[in-house]
Amino acid sequence: MALCACALLLTACSFDFAATTPATAATATPIDLSAIADAEYQLLAEIYERASPAVVSIEAQRTGDKAAAETARRGAGFVYDQLGHIITNAHLVNDADAIGVTLGKGLALEATLVGADSFSDVAIVKISAPAERLQPLRIGESASIKVGQRAIAIGNPFGLNSSMTAGIVSGIGRTLPSAELIGSGNFAYDNPAIIQIDAPLYPGSSGGPLLDSRGLVFGMTTANQSLTGESAGIGFAVPADTMRRVIPDLLAAGWVDYAWMGISVMREAGGYGVAGLSAALDLPTERGVLLRGVTAGSPAHLAGLRGGSRLVDVRGKPVCAGGDLIVAIDGIHFDNLDALMAYLVQDKRPGDEVRLLVIRERRTMEMSLQLASRPASDAAPTLGCDTTS
Q1: What is the pTM of this model?
Q2: 91 annotated active-site
Q3: Catalytic residue at 212?
Q4: pLDDT tens digit string along 255-281?
């Protein structure tokens, strides 16, 4: 009886929902939620379809290597033009006795080294292939990239050719110690304006293109930071503006002649840039580059720039104080050393004359300086705190 009562109650309480629903609801076009959700993946698929034929596999072998076929350096590269020029990382092909390039559809070819630049970690190799087999990628610009924009990497992780990963730009204006990447010794210039991404990078990803949402190359993957050697979501790429600067020199001469001032400064890490030191050292600004020393006989020395004169304890660490503070070059103000270095690397050449805006002991002055070519070694002494610390 109880079940019958419940059944009667449910029947009595039921409504004809169809009868009470507005007539317009039956004719409304539903939103295709799946199409919206798939839009990003369709974009990635289209970019991959257009870009992947330009991505190649690089294998560099060295005479005397044990089990050379297994210990050869492997990575990626991408087609630059239909003359057969391939862009890749210098650390992949430096000192190689044989370089192999495999195109997207499996055509394996021998390559010759056109030029390599250890500082930027950019190299060019050349293959002989029919023009119709070569689909170049277009190198865009990197000056306007922003944190948060899409970053698409194509490479050959673990030998898995033309694999794509995607993420975002997670940092800009990083620096990498270029000589340590190449393994060429202790004398190193930092590679500025490096792009940080969270797209996973693995062994074999180096040298591959980093693409934006239009399929333009805005960087070239070069390294990842990890305690285990696996991807930890911190990858780095050489910016397109640096590539655009060095590629013409590599094609013409096989090497790159960089502008040089001859200054040494405090490392920016750990808050020891001008912004982090301004209060402790009573600096008149939070922007610029504080000189620790100048190289004897360098353009900076000849122009009259001065390094620091005393060591000051700041948060338990010795900091060089009393040096000139460069706040602008050619009317362009710089927040830190990386921005200044990027300007010199990407926009200036040896022999160019620049105008410096300098603060010395709270007095502002202008100075002229003629840039020189970078020296091959750091044999010259540095004048400033370096001589006493």
Answers
A1: 0.82
A2: yes
A3: no
A4: 999 999 999 887 644 456 788 888 888
